[in-house]
Amino acid sequence: MGSFCSRQKPYNEADTEENEQDAEIERRIARETKAEQHIHKLLLLGAGESGKSTIFKQIKLLFQTGFDEAELRSYTSVIHANVYQTIKILYDGAKELAQNESDSSKYVVSLDNKDLGEKLSEIGSRLDYPYLTKEITNEIKTLWNDAAIQETYARGNILQVPDCAQYFMENLERLSEADYVPTKEDVLYARVRTTGVVEIQFSPVGESRKSGEVYRLYDVGGQRNERRKWIHLFEGVTAVIFCAAISEYDQMLFEDETKNRMMETKELFDWVLKQSCFENTSFMLFLNKFDIFEKKVQKVPLNICEWFRDYQPMASGKQEVEHAYEFVKKKFEELYFQSTKPERVDRVFKIYRTTALDQKLVKKTFKLVDETLRRRNLIEAGLL
Amino acid sequence: MPQYQQPPSWRLEGGGQILDLETAVKDGILGGGAGGCGLGSATCEKVDLKKMIEELEPVEDVPSVFICPISLEPMVDPVTLCTGQTYERFNILKWLSMGHLTCPTTMQELWDDAVTPNRTLHQLIHAWFSQRYLRFKKRSEDVQGRAAELLETLKKVKGQARVQALKELQKMAVDHSSVQKTVADYGGVALLTSLLGPFTSHAVGSEAIGILVNLSLDSEAKVNLMQPAKISLVVDMLNEGTIDTKINCTRLIEMLMGEKDFRSEIVSSLSLLAGLMRLAKDRRHPNGTWTGLSLLKTICSHERVRGLIVSVGAVSQLVELLPNLSPECLELALHILDDLSTIPEGRVALKDCPRTIPNAVRLLMRVSESCTQYALSILWAVCKLAPDECASLAVEAGLAAKLLLVIQSGCSPELKQRSAELLKLCSLNYTATLFISKCKLTRTIQ
């Protein structure tokens, strides 16, 4: 017996050391997993140009340290690129309309500006854009003010004119200053097609500073080719924030100009709702770009979009806007209940009216989202 | 007979002393004047005892010597019999007029049927109630004052302070009916309504609704509340709140539906209907079930919304629910299903649900005549839609025997007529002998 024991000793020591290390590693893994569990994963989904990245930027501005000067400066090239892209799209669009439309004369750019147009169109097709000098700025401004270009802009929905067009055109002087540093608003308007996935981690600080909720927000590219990258993110998501730009009921996709954007959003939302990994995920639907919707709905009837063809206008002015909005909201609600199996109807589904560019509104909206998610947490833990 | 209770010590107004019954009697409760109110307050002399007792009702700790042994109510005009027992005048005279010549409590035979007014006791009772009355009035004013204060606060504060103010106001409104009037007088309804909007947090919204639902809302207030943004908020809270919040939201919507300008689009919300079904199905809270079903029934009376109700799967959920419902809820649920059977989608949903026929057959002649009527109507709708399929299922479930029961019962003639027609419809696929065998009441049905 004795020798048996003494022979075991050296092995035991080595073993215990290893066991000790293993145990330590196990403990660390357990701690980190536990820490991860308290982090709520939020996914920003939606079709291209629905406002996901703008919301992402807003969250960054609201709950993180915002953008420092270096980050702001990094947007300068993007903003300048937007300017060149916009004017090119408009000029090329004018030419196209002049050829194809019956009332072609109003789309013919004046003789003086034609050369400008050709030059700017050529610049816009390059991979690298030159810095926005005062000279070029004046040329762009002249072209923008051309009657034909304005007419073309009014038909912007059939071209791929970005929503930031007017804003940047109106601020051209400032954008071309030598020491231009983009403002927060400029950054929010800047348009870059997201590719891949971006994430930030933040803690919304409310009145009860001890709330301690930690969110990790993921932003993705919305175009079709980007969507296959989404599937990797779908596990363990607390909430999906689905952005739908309700102002695009009369526009076509960037990646497929034969497809209406609202129909694309409808199909996409349907697809997302049916994913089995989202069985217990809360859905926050952001009906975005309300500011553009407001103006558009009084001029362009909703039933231009196939999904909204049974819309009947009731009043006019502000009442009509409200009525139209409620109609769109009901359509999405209908879609939700159609796409959701009866067992899943218990998951949280809320609709919010948003204008992603308005920081105050986004802050208020997010406060509500946070409250809902916290309540949901408490309910699931049986505390409510 | 009421047990003798140790009377509680009273605190005299102004004096600030605590007295027991003996000292109170010695010291001035018996003070002069018609009212016998020793408290120096001019008002209580004029206030009539009967009125005070009514306003203070229900009072819990009335001293037992003040209670009439016949009616168990406080005595307003106490009279004493020759046996020394005291009763309320009206009650004892009634007793005697019925021919009884005994004292009700002691059972002794009365040697003298005269009744003597017990002035001493009357004064004591009056004084006791006066004191209580004064205290009640003062507390009422306090409460009303506090309510007015809270309303002022609500106009200024936000966030957590707002939630706290609302919570306090809600508690007061529930405990004191006088607060409701104060809230109405100080423009509280409009204020609370203005707090509800697309950016209202759940905490604020649920408290505000909790107060509003206990007030009487005029037409203007109701129309104000019917704005889509506010209704959306109420629906959201109905879906996410605690059971009390859910019930409050449901009750509020029901209140709005009573308004004459009510348009059915307001309740044509799938979220609302799904939320109500969830509330109705929640077995842990039967009063929630009743409230939810009640609103669903009211909504169902609007024909245009019936299709939506069917589309959220209400039919199968209600049918599954039937065996577990209390009689009041059962009537509501059957009424809803009957309404839904008037539209094609409803009929199809009823037919497709496997439990419809067995549950409906089971309910015939089991709970009440109206339940039987609804169940019969549902069975009719289903059997007419698919006679071959459903009639045989129904007969297998024991329908025939039940229908015979209805026909032989004391139910209304229309009901019997319908039962006879349904019986005929079901018998079509059977030979006479086979059908008769199906008509026998099996033990389970009995």
Q: Which runs of chain B of at least 5 residues are low in confidence (pLDDT < 50)?
A: 1-19, 30-46
User: Counting H and I runs of at least 4 residues, what is the number of helices of chain B?
Assistant: 24
Helix content of chain B: 55-70%
Structural class of chain A: alpha/beta
Please state the overall shape of chain A, judged from the principal axes of the Cα atoms: globular
Radius of gyration of chain A: 26 Å
What's the count of strands of chain A? Answer: 6
What is the rounded Rg of chain B? 31 Å
Q: What structural class do the secondary elements of chain B suggest? A: mainly alpha
- Please trace the helix and strand order of chain B, writing H or E for each element: EEHHHEEHEHHHHHHHHHHHHHHHHHHHH
- Biggest sheet of chain A, open or closed, and with what strands and sense? 6 strands, mixed
The pair of chains with the biggest contact is:
A-B, 27 and 23 residues
* Low-pLDDT sequence parts of chain A: 1-9
How are strands sequenced across the largest beta sheet of chain B?
A: 4-3-5
How much of the sequence lies in strands of chain A comes to: 5-15%
Q: Please count the beta strands of chain B (DSSP E, at least 2 residues each).
A: 5
Please give the alpha-carbon distance between the first and last residues of chain A. Answer: 61 Å
Strand order of the largest sheet of chain A: 2-3-1-4-5-6
Description:
- By secondary structure, chain A is α/β, with parallel strands linked by helices.
- Helices cover about 50% and strands about 10% of the residues of chain A.
- A 6-stranded mixed beta sheet of chain A has the order 2-3-1-4-5-6, sandwiched between helices.
- The longest helix of chain A has about 35 residues, at about 1-35.
- With about 450 residues, chain B is an all-alpha fold.
- Chain B contains 24 helices and 5 strands.
- In chain B, strands 4-3-5 form a 3-stranded antiparallel beta sheet. In chain B, strands 1-2 form a two-stranded antiparallel ribbon.
- In chain B, strand 3 and strand 4 (about 85-90) form a beta hairpin.
- In chain B, helix 11 (about 230-240) packs antiparallel against helix 12 (about 245-255) and helix 22 packs antiparallel against helix 23.
- The two termini of chain B are about 45 Å apart.
